[in-house]
What does this fold into?
Amino acid sequence: MKTTLLWMGLILMTSTSMAATPAETLKQLIAEEWEFEVREDPLFATQTGDHRFNDKLPSVTVADEERREKATRDFLKRLEAIDRAQLAAADGLNHDLLRRTLRNRIGEYEFKTYLMPITNREGFHTDFPQLPDRVPLDNTKDYENYCARLEACKVYIDQYLETMRAGVKAGYVLPKAVMEGWETAVDAHIVDDPTKSLLYAPFEKYPDDVPTADRARLTERGKKAITGSVVPGYRDLRDFMAKEYVPACRGTIAASELPNGKAFYEHRVRYYTTLDLTPKQVHDTGLSEVKRIRAEMDAVIVKSGFKGSFADFLNFLRTDPRFYVDTPEQLLKEVSYISKKMDGQLPKMFKTLPRMPYGVKPIPDFIAPKTTTAYYNQPAGDGTRAGTYYMNTYDLKARPLYELEALSFHEAVPGHHLQIAIMQELPDVPNFRRYTYFTAFVEGWGLYSERLGLESGFYQDPYSDFGRLTYEMWRALRLVVDTGMHYFGWTRQQAIDYMAQNGALSMHNVTTEVDRYISWPGQAVAYKIGELKIRELRAWATQELGVKFDVREFHDVVLWSGAVPLDVLEANVRAWVAQAKKT
It folds into this structure.
């Protein structure tokens, strides 16, 4: 008996001494959750530089989404069982950010956002044709992986169609008002000749590391995959959209008209702003910002010497040929020159810069008519592909030169490229933090970056300065029209008129933007809310530190924790100020 008790005691002591600490448990959980994410989404894995699944596409059935929701809840339950008080500061931040990420994901599952996997301008159907720009294509194995993904395209699309059918049945569909022209993004990929497909481009010019002996075989496999999988998949999509989806689209535009829609939109506002804000608070902030920015715009008009009303000045900007180029090449050269000029100013504002460069490309023709003015694609996680600033060269009369400085600072440097490249190069942080996208931070930084041009010698003429204000006004208007349409009963035309009367965007851009907000509820409010918080924290830190304030140090504090919720950002800045006061 004594021997048995002694043995049990030894076992108990051994198991206790071997029990994982909270920090070890957290590290293991983070690793497991990350492994789950990359296995569930092979395209995301490739983007991060994990090439184990380069021949696969995600499985996206309703059953898959339900399974992922359960797994996410299990991860959250395990995370919340860890004693947060026992963690050091760095681990505590990892804990907080993973908890926020998992809770956000669960909220999206609860409101069944996966049943609406497309907007009026983007989704799986526009992402897939851009694979050649997003996957490695350096050797024979890469090409075999690429072919395997092409061969899986039809199953991939058909799974999405199953999910969208479930959305139709449950009432989760896009509004009819934004569906005009949907065919453009689909028809471009239904080709009789596989060599005319955008996805054929990699087979037209092979890299040196693909032996000549492999090329004919790979080309033939690629052709068969396009003919036998990609084209049939897009035909299925077209038939579904024309015969089932578009006829079922709803006549309303408000997210509040979706099932449990009012609560959904309230969730979306919190989700995208990362703050506990109501739609009314966001709407009122927008009205206040519109009024302030409009006064600054009026002052710039006076400074320009223009005689006439605000509406007259907008008409002048929209019609005078001096503000427009004649060819896409001219537009790309203009944005490239502006971006390169800003590159030279960065050391004055930033102590630490990323290693990864970026390039400039036109937005693909098949999505250009319905998409935004520009966007940014992040670098590959393994450093094999640079960041890319995509510029829309469709309808050149909608791309005025006076907007290009603000646009380029937002999309390239010191905006998205600088911030995201730094985030991906963060040392000593778990992978999930290198790829977590808190919209209010990322887009808030992009908008804040536009203003940094004022500190760097740009906006020298009143027109480009007006362009800067136009872009700031654009983001303020979003606060008003997004909440207006989705929560307060505004019509689409009311939103278009409000934006056209208070900003200088071309009418093409006004319309495409309003349709974007209709099909993507809540996302657009993040920009201005995030920028206001960064500016508020900078002003506070400047006042608190006086001559000790260093904008280069401030920018390091903002950027070198990666994308974080705005309340976490505030805590970081306040901790830095407190420490700086002691030195």
Summary: Residues 1-5, 10-17 have pLDDT under 50 and may be disordered. The chain has three domains: 21-111, 124-251, 264-531. Strands lie at 358-362, 374-377, 387-391. The CA atoms of residues 336 and 438 lie 28 Å apart.
